[in-house]
Design brief:
66% of the residues lie in helices and 1% in strands. With 311 residues, the chain is mostly helical. α13 packs antiparallel against α14 (290-310). The chain is globular and about 65 Å long. Keywords: Repeat, Signal, TPR repeat. TPR repeats lie at residues 116-149, 184-217.
Length: 311
């Protein structure tokens, strides 16, 4: 039996990272535009990377059109209870139950230790909990077992972005893109890399390609919205993207937090900013998201101080 990773899982990982990155990327004074990079956390101790094909000598630029490419064949898995656990773990990620997903994926890899997608799945569950060092080890294992597994490179690139390993993130994103030109995660990571280097034109091409590839994925609009806001200072374009992301994922607290910060940075629409912050706090109650709640409360204080200064 061939098991393929459901397409939505990468989207789940990306939107899950909205919550992880939102506060890390919005520290500091709310009146000051931030850079488009997450706050560095201690670097993970990485296992040696498996040998792979030589990297190209030049970095890729996004293509004008998206050419559909066949999804790589999945890893063969026997029809056993491991398949049931595998699907249960995906469902747990969809519900935001990352600890349960980790435990269930652990059962999968114990039953099928040669199943690369099982290791990749557990890596995603770990990544979404902020357990980056452990996630890297699982992605390394998945790639060791299946060197052409694009999603594992893409997920490892996202993890490396989270720990500020920009060179490693770029390397993995390039490899993911080589294997699958429709890898949205690779588009977003490469956009982030070019933005960091000051090549905003190429960065925007990558973010645009991510949206063209999967316009129904709210995280693509969120990543580009943050780029517009924090790098280009294009408030109206950022607002349009945040609005689209919220329309697609109205239950994501971090999206309201980012839109509220846009209002606050632009010093406009204080009532809309307050409404978004209240909504972010409300959506962060179950499951509890302390970092989102704390940041939203900090921004409410900023609004209160501004209101008091006007009176």
């Amino acid at each position: 039996m061939l098991i393929r990773s459901p397409k939505y899982l990468v989207s789940l990982a990306l939107i899950g990272l909205v919550t992880l990155f939102a506060v890390a990327c919005t520290g500091g004074d709310a009146d000051t535009a931030n850079t488009d990079e997450p706050t560095p956390v201690p670097a993970a101790t990485e296992a040696p990377e498996p040998t792979s094909e030589p990297e190209p000598t030049s970095r890729p630029r996004p293509k004008v059109t998206v050419t559909p490419t066949p999804e790589p064949e999945g890893t063969a898995v026997s029809e056993s209870e491991s398949v049931t656990f595998y699907l249960q773990a995906f469902n747990s990620i969809g519900r935001g139950e990352y600890v349960d997903a980790e435990r269930t994926f652990t059962t999968v890899v114990e039953l099928e230790p040669g199943f690369a997608r099982g290791w990749d799945g557990r890596g995603q569950a770990l990544m979404l909990q902020g357990k980056y060092e452990e996630a890297l080890r699982d992605f390394d294992k998945a790639i060791e077992l299946k060197p052409n597994l694009s999603v594992a490179y893409a997920n490892r690139s996202l993890t490396r972005i989270a720990i500020n390993d920009i060179e490693g993130a770029e390397r993995d994103a390039r490899r993911a893109f080589e294997l699958d030109e429709n890898s949205v995660a690779s588009h977003l990571v490469l956009g982030r890399v070019y933005a960091r280097e000051g090549d905003t034109t190429t960065a925007l091409e990558w973010f645009d390609l991510a949206i063209t590839t999967d316009p129904e994925d709210p995280s693509t609009w969120w990543w580009r919205g943050r780029f517009y806001r924090d790098v280009l200072g294009a408030g109206n374009a950022a607002l349009d993207d945040f609005n689209q992301a919220i329309e697609l994922a109205p239950a994501q607290a971090a999206l309201y937090l980012d839109r509220a910060q846009l209002y606050i940075q632009a010093n406009v629409e204080p009532e809309l900013a307050r409404a978004d912050l209240d909504e972010a706090i409300s959506l962060s109650q179950d499951p509890k998201l302390p970092s989102i709640i704390e940041r939203a409360e900090e921004l409410i204080v900023v609004l209160d101080e501004r209101a008091a200064a006007i009176q």
